[in-house]
Amino acid sequence: MPEASILVRFAETNRVYTNGDKISGTVTLTCFGNLTLRAIEVYCRCTVVAYATIGDHTQFVEHQHLFQRRRKLFPEFQRSAARNVEKLTLRPGIYTFPFEFTLPDSEVDLPQSFNQENDMSGVFWHVRARVERCSKLQKPIVGQLNFAFIPSSVRSLNVPTREVVKQQKFVLSVCEPRLTIPGFLAKKKNLPVEVTCRVTYPASGLALGHYTESFIGLWLSSNIEHAIFIDRISVCVQEHTKVYCLSSQVRSEKPIISHPLVVLTPHMLITRKGIDLGWLLGASRISNITVGTIQLPHLHHDFSLSISLVFSSATSPRRQQVVTFVSEMFVQPRTISRASSVAGSSLTLVC
């Protein structure tokens, strides 16, 4: 049976904190027998934890505190009774100690709390209580409680260009007429096709919030005169986490999470002149994206825009060719005002 247990509680539950907020609560220490201790400390931390999966093995990469503040609950609360207290013996019972921290202001650039399901890597904001024993051979008693943090402002970051042009070549079966004695006959021929895809966004970026709509533009053209059709368009945002081990130059990628935006079956003709397509996207399309781009030395949480196109020719509609264009995307982290106790609703995407 353990000698004691420790529990951290917040005064406000289910709250999202931001810069400048005060986070308060209590540390409850339950002693099952006489407990002699040297110190009781409580920490407020922002910790980056990174684990890389290499083959069948999980390798620890990084454990770094980006922010830390500490309060000593003992011997501080005993100084009124005895000035030179080095240890304290508590009898069996329940002891409660209050704590309060002020989170850093917006001048300090700190990331949003982030952790994917069933993954040990992430950015963790937490309050941790620790009871130091008198002997170093005795393990400390530790209790910890995580909380959600979203910054109140985000510094301007260098983002990629708002217009991305990509070209891709493939072979498509088409019918080419030829002159014979009976007349014109069609002859099937495999022709190399080069499709140009240009994705455009507003100059201010793509803002996806509950009260905003933003425009995605797509321009397509081919390099041949034959009739080429686009049968299907799928647009999605891909969310992926990467862990970097700088010492061994090892990179571990977590499973990609896809968020569909647009799925169309237009069956439209593409020519050399090109065609223009576009969509208005609201916040409901990617409401399940909760964390923006995070770029730390060992942990990257990145996004990309994936556009999958299915092409066919007029003479061979069943022989389709799938082409996918992928472009890196910057997602501005959500922000929250100090007056609000729930997460902000706007996301800004820039490609």
Automatic annotation (TrEMBL):
A GO biological-process term: protein transport
Residues annotated as domain Arrestin-like N-terminal: 8-139
InterPro entries to which the protein is assigned, alphabetical: Arrestin-like_C, Arrestin-like_N, Arrestin_domain-protein, Ig_E-set
Any GO CC annotation of this UniProt entry: cytoplasm
Source domain of life: Eukaryota
PANTHER family: ARRESTIN DOMAIN CONTAINING PROTEIN, FI21816P1
UniProt name for this protein: Arrestin-like N-terminal domain-containing protein
Organism: Wickerhamiella sorbophila
